Structures are given as structure tokens and as C-alpha cells.
Amino acid sequence: MVTIAPTEIELPDYDAQLLAKLSAVAGEPAAVRAQRAAALALYRDLPLPPARDEEWRHSPLSLFPFAGVQLASPAQLGAVFNADPWDDDFDVVIEVHDDSFAIRDQASLLKRGALEILPLADALARQLPSAVAPTYRRKFVALNQAFWTAGFFVRVISGQCRLLLRWQFTKTGRLQLPRIAVAVESGAQLNLVERWRSTNDGPMLVIGAHEFRVAPDARLERVALHEWGVTTACIAEDAAVVGERGRADWVTAVLGGQAVKLVAGCDVAGRGADAHLSGLYFADGAQHVDQRTVQLHSSPDTTSHLLYKGAVQDRSHAIYQGLINARRGAVRVDAFQMNRNLVLNQGARADSLPGLEIDADDLKCSHGSATGNLDPEQLFYLRARGIAEDEARRLLVAAFFEEVIGKASQARVQEHLREAVRQKMEHAP
Amino acid sequence: MAEFEIRDLQARIGEKPILQGVNLTIERGETHALMGPNGSGKSTLSNVIMGHPDYEVTGGDILFRGQSLLGLPTEERARLGVFLAFQYPVAVPGVSVARFLKTAVEAVRGKSAGGAGGFLKGVREQMKSLEMTEAFLDRGLNEGFSGGEKKRLEILQMRLLKPALAVLDETDSGLDIDALRIVAGGVNQLRGSDLTLLVITHYERLLKLIQPDHLHVLMEGRIVFSGGPEAVQELERRGYDWLREQAGEAVVAG
């Protein structure tokens, strides 16, 4: 087993001067500047995660090219919208291309007042109550909340909305800090698909933070596709709070990126709330994919179901850390967590660290994990039917992921994920 | 040249020798039955014929139409026309029966001229004769299948792949009498000069439905008895013990 030596690195000085420059370029009002400044104070107050930190010990900060990137310019409304075939399946599309963004209201939801989308600065300036989730005392979330370079506030007021958020970064040597705050109001439904892409020409670092608030009886389905280029690193945290009888369905797919460290935390906060967290990851080459999930049960009668499935090949390394946390008094909770990994060759590595933290009784809680290569009996069966070994392997890997792919409701997303898995298998050693 | 010939075959799993010199010759179009008590090596033989990676052949040869199978990967054996109906077909959730059948048939027989529609039409016809419903096609391969469903699917595959040599490994196990009749019927329809069959079983009841031309008994890794179809009754009446004694004497005599 390879152990990574603890690395002391020094981060660039993200200070008030840098922040003032950013706000000046963006022309932000005082209220926004104040909120950025508060986040900066918190960021500077929080220590860097020590190398031995449970959460960071598999992913030293030296994996992320802080020294090689400079803060990107804040994204401004651009004149050009580049249409994409995916757009047809959505009501509204937000496109972010480096430092410019555009919004297309294809089904007139914004016009009809069923949906609100604001550049984040406008939302913060108006101090919309649901715009900002509670401040987490997390180092890189604070960095994002201080320096976010592209941000949106999305609020679904009524009915159902299908929203596509396309991020595309092409400028190398940049630190991008995307941030979105999403509110789904009572009885409404949001189907959000986010595609994260970047080019392969040089170092990029993305530090993202997403906040979701799902009101009572509201529903959120969110698919995040991390399809970064091989020279991009990403640290991102997603946090959701689900109200009474609300439901959140998350599908997180990590396919690209040099080093990716994600945290997905979901608080089933209202009685009867229900969350389904699904993950698909396939690392190859020298990719490093580290994911942590938190299923937080802060209320009674809440359910959460988690299924993360990953594959590693070549010299790649995947880490999954899961936590089910049932707070005191959270009775009649039903929580499930399962992580499965396929290690497709020697030299690739998958670590699975499921965990429970239970302060309540009268609850049903189970977790498990399994890591191994493809089942030799399944391979033999397929080969006995004339299917060549590499094709049989492709079939079995596709079959392995089918369970999580099925969690995404849109056929286009499903087909895209199947194709992405096929592409990875084309490069199998 | 015999259609299928096993010559002095020796095989082991790990350090444990299981087949200790098996000899068997089957002429084209014949049906041979292979019986024997538990642990005699019957399933090992079928796995070795198909090239299961857990078994190591330490001596002898397996010839199909004069060509040795031993150096060939499993899929090449299948493409030559060798088929194994598994005793315990493994479940593969996430691969639908329809997708699996299409992939297998294309791998063995090439793409069908009729396209996907023509292929499915052919599958449905074959399914009807095995009393299988169409809902089968969308299910995960062997996922949650009953014993009878699994065995029917094995025979369906055999009918679609049209092998020249089929080894049926305890196809009767786990089947009630109705399912057995359907499965045996599905095999019998294929019998003729184009299909050579090796039927491995524990029980005589399958051999009443699929009547063999020859019968062999495997014991402790060797064929200890070969006879005509009339031997089925004899075995049913007398069991294996008299053969065991005879085999013991043979070993002593040898």
C-alpha cells in the first residue's frame, strides 16, 4: 500500500486587497462587499486541514495547483449564447464560458414568474432570505464565499422546471470559484443538470460551493457531471437542506479531472424528508477522486438512501468516505449507505470508508461496502457464449454502473453516462 | 475422425487432482450420457471442456473435429461450436436477457441479416417453444430467476447459438417434472446429425426423456463403465456400488 507523506504547503495569500480588486472589477455594491469580507475573515480564521486530518489524509493539498493559478475575472453577462444539443431537453439554460455567462429562458418560465434566476451579487445585495444557506465553518467553502467568480441564485417558485447549467472553462492558469444557491419553494420541483467541463491545455483549479434549500413538499433532482479536463483540479462542496416531506435526488458523476475532492452533504431536516444520493465515478490514468458524503438526519421520520459505485483502472486512486449522522431525537430514521468499487487492474486503488455516528435510538441504519475485481464466474459465463474477454469486461462494467445510471431520470443523461463508461473502457489497459 | 474425443485427460483444481485419465469418444450426431456419483468429476469435466480458468489440465487432450481445444480461450471454443449448458448459470444484473442474447449470437454467428427486429422475431419464436414469456427479455440476466427459468434460458441459448457439440451439465437439477419435460423437449427437437450431445446427469429420469445412444459412468476421475442405452435401467436398479467394487478390483488387478 502506498502512503502519501504529509505535505506542508503554503497557499497564496488570498487577502482583502485581492478581494477589493475583484469587487471593483465586478462593480459590486457595499452589501455584497461586506458579505465577501465576512467570508474572507472566516477563511483567514480557519486553519488549513492538517495532513493527518481524517478527511484530507488521502488527498494532500499538494495535489491541487494553488501556486500555478491566479484568481479568474468575475463572470459578466455576455452577448453570445452558444446553443448545445442538450438544451432541447430543458426549459432554461445557463451557460458559463470562462468569465462570461448567458441565460436562455426557452419555456418562458422566468417571464411567467414561475422561476427566478439572479446573478448571485444581485441576490446578495437584496438579501433574499433563501439565497444563502447557513455558513459552514469550512475552509474552502469560506474561500468560495469570499472570492466566488461566477454565481447564481435560482429559485423555483411554482410548477416544474428543468434547468441545465453548463460550465466550460478554457483559460488555463486560472482559479475559478463557482457558486450557486438554489431554493425550491413549497410544492415546486426542480430538475437540475450541471455539466462541468474544462480543456486540457494547462493547470486549472476550481473551488466550488453549492447550497440547496428544498422547502416542505418540494422536490429537487440534481445531476452533477464532473467532466473536467485532465489538467484540472477541483475541490467542491454541496450542501442541501430538505424540509418536511421534501425529497432530494442527487446523482454525482465524476469522470474527468486530475484531482477531484467533493463533499456532498444532505440534511433531511424536516419530518418526512427523504434523500437519495447516488454516485458514479470512473477514474483512469493518474486520476485522483476523493468523495465524502454526509447523510444528516436532524429530524424524526426521515429517510436517506445512498449508493455510490466506482471503478478504478491504470494508476488511479478513488477514495470514498461516507457518514450517516443521526442527531439526538431523530427517531424512526431509516438510513442506508452502500459503496461498491471495481478495481480493474493491479496498481489502481479504491479505498472505502463507510461510517456511522448515531446519537438517537429507534432507528434503522445500515451501511456496507465491497471492493474487488470483476466476478470471474460472470466473465466465464459470458466468454462461454463466445463473447471475447475485453467485450465481456466492457459488458460487466456497464452492468455494474447500470444501477446508478438508472437513478438519473433523463434519458439523455443516462445515455451520456453509458457512453462515458464505454469511452473509459476503450482505454482499458 | 470422431466428432469429439477426450484422450487420457487429467486435470486438477489447485493441488487437488480430479480427472485422472478420462477417455471418451463421441461420433457425430450421437448422444452420450455421463453419470456418476457426487464428486466423481462430472462438473470438472464440463468446465475443463469449456476452459474454466480455475482448472489446470495436467495431461491428455480434448479434440473437437480433430482440433485440440486446450490452447484456445473459452470464447474461441464457443465460436467453434462448443456449448455448455451450465448447472448453475450465474446472474448478471444490469445486462438484460435481450442484450445478452444478441451479443452472444453475434459473437458466435455474426450479425444477423434481419437486423435487430429480425433477431428478436427469431428469439420470440424459440421462446414460445420453451413456454417462456416475452417479459423474460427485459429482465436482468438470470437475476432472480427460478431454477426452471434459468435452465430454460440455457436451452434457449443453445437453440439460438446452434452448437455442433453441446454439453448439458445437470440440466435436470432443480427442475420439476413439467419444466423437465419442456427443457428435454427443447433439446430433443435439435437432435440429429448436426448435433453431438454429452448429457451429464445424476438421475435416470432425464435419460428417459433424452435417450442416449451410449452411457458412461465417471468415478474418481475415470470412466469406469461404458454401455448401451439398456445400461440406464441396470444402473437404476443396481446403483453405483457394484461399479465401485468392480473399479476397485480393476485397480487391484492393474
Question: What labels describe this entry?
Answer:
heterodimer, A: alpha/beta, 12-stranded mixed sheet, 11-stranded mixed sheet, 20% helix, disordered N terminus, B: 254 residues, alpha/beta, Rossmann fold, 4-stranded antiparallel sheet, 9 helices, 39% helix, globular
Short description:
Chain A is an alpha/beta fold and 429 residues long. Chain A has eight helices and 23 strands.
Describe this structure in words.
Chain A has one domain. Chain A contains eight helices and 23 strands. Chain A has helices at 16-26, 30-45, 109-112, 120-125, 139-147, 376-383, 389-405, 411-426, and strands at residues 70-71, 76-77, 92-97, 100-105, 115-119, 150-156, 160-169, 174-176, 178-184, 189-198, 204-214, 219-227, 232-242, 247-254, 259-268, 274-283, 288-297, 303-312, 317-326, 333-343, 349-353, 356-358, 363-372. In chain A, the strands form two sheets. In chain A, strands 1, 5, 6, 8, 9, 11, 13, 15, 17, 19, 21 and 22 form a twelve-stranded mixed beta sheet that branches. An eleven-stranded mixed beta sheet of chain A has the order 2-4-3-7-10-12-14-16-18-20-23. In chain A, helix 1 runs antiparallel to helix 2, helix 6 packs across helix 7 (389-405) and helix 7 packs antiparallel against helix 8. With 254 residues, chain B is of the alpha/beta class. Chain B has a single domain, classed as Rossmann fold (3-Layer(aba) Sandwich), CATH 3.40.50.300. Helix content of chain B is 39%, strand content 28%. A six-stranded mixed beta sheet of chain B has the order 6-9-10-3-11-12, with helices on both faces. A four-stranded antiparallel beta sheet of chain B has the order 2-1-4-5. Classes of the chains: A alpha/beta (429), B alpha/beta (254). The A-B interface holds A 375-378, 380-389, 391-392, 395-396, 398-403 and B 50, 52-54, 73-75, 77-79, 84, 86, 89-90, 92-95, 100, 103-104, 107-108, 157, 161.
